[in-house]
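Same chain as my last thread, 87 residues:
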Amino acid sequence: MPADLQRLIAEMAAANRTWGEERIAAELLVKLGIRVSPRTVRRYMPRGAGPRDGARSQQWITFVRNHAHAVLACDFFVVTPNQPDIK
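reply #2:
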């Protein structure tokens, strides 16, 4: 793999800390037409880059506690397509 492409992968990973190897590989393909497997991208990402090695996101209970004063009501539901209406 060319050294400039290795540097580009490292720069993309450093600049976009939430992107993993799959996203970087997809961006290279879509934006530059460079086909690289995610596994190869991972090889050239700097240690500590990407969502796997970084700090974990907060847990749901932490989010609720942090925002409880601002939440009035919350409802979750799932709509599945191609199912007959239930009456």
